[in-house]
Amino acid sequence: MDRNLALEFVRVTEAAAIAAASWIGKGDKHAADGAAVAEMRDRFNQIDFSGRVVIGEGTKDQAPMLFVGETLGKARNLPAGRQVDIAVDPLECTSSVAFGRYNAMSVAVAGAKDTLLSPPDDEAHFYMFQIAVGPKAAQAIDLNASVKTNIEKTANALGKPIEDITVVLLDRPRHEKLISEVRATGARVRLITDGTIAAGVATCLPETGIDLMMGVGGATEAVLTAAAVKVLGGQLYARFEDSKIYSAEDLAKGDQITFTATGIIDGPLLQGVRYEDHKIITHSMVIRGQSKTIRYITTHHYAK
Q1: What is the pLDDT of residues 179-198, one digit of tens each?
Q2: How far is residue 230's CA from residue 69's CA, in Å, rounded to a whole number?
């Protein structure tokens, strides 16, 4: 993946984040998502590349743009070998933006053709059970193991007592048993209303204080998370109900991967959009597979 193209995608997520941020706390998640989608699509189409959406705004989001199979970019007639697969979540955590809650981002992942898994767009494949950890514990987890075993092995790999392990889960009724099992080990539980992408990637960054993410979350979000986790040396395993287990490498293959995100509301990875006199400040990150680098980018957007 060309590094200049990777940096071009920052402008895409910045634009989507700014568009969504104007709807923070206004109670309309559809308007917020629609604004992010429209801005992201418009910015992609200003870039000199050929991209094919493999994860986008599908049935679950009822969106007419950035749908799976849509072609993006100014150079749409490039040979298949020069095309880029695109996976997007223009507004991760629509409810967080609508109600002014913690953590929301705009995310775009790119890879070489046929490197990103595109889950079937039907209700049976909306969600996957997932577990993610950072580099030190990448060999410790097993989706078939018990919660207790995964936490114990993660703690051992990190050189921490179990009581100092922090596990992030979505605060959902479906997770009541899982939450109880985590608490029974003595580990800390952090419940989030939304935002499994940020939570999963945060396991790879010690400064976030998040050691392990688990539970049932969106299948498309699993692919986006896997792209960053894999580049950072961590591991993510996911599966649909009663089906095969996918590793991070299965979900996002090879080194031709980039992960770009811009914060909308403060979260574990990024600060949100800031408004000052005559300017808007955004905070973004670019994770690139080939170079194994993370770039943090703060941009000041001055009023025209």
Answers
A1: 999 999 999 999 999 999 99
A2: 25
Which two three-digit tokens encode residue 87?
A: 């996976």
CA-based angle 190:246:292, to the nearest 5? Answer: 75
pLDDT of 24 above 60: yes
- The Cα–Cα gap between 105 and 84 comes to 22
Rounded Cα–Cα distance for residues 22 and 12 (Å):
16
Which one-letter amino acid corresponds to residue 180?
S
Mean pLDDT across 112-119: 91
Which residue type sits at 128?
M
DSSP assignment string, 38-53? HHHHHHHTTSSS-EEE
The CA distance from 185 to 124, in Å, is 32
φ, ψ for residue 210, nearest 5 deg: -105, 125
Nearest to 115, CA basis, from 92, 134, 87, 88: 87
- 92: helix, strand or coil: strand
Residue type for position 24: I
Q: Where are the domains of the chain?
A: 3-116+254-302, 124-251
CATH number of 3-116+254-302: 3.30.540.10
Structure-token pair, residue 181: 């099992």
**Residue of 110, 1, 11, 5 lying closest to 48 (CA atoms):** 5
CATH topology for the 124-251 domain: D-Maltodextrin-Binding Protein; domain 2 (3.40.190)
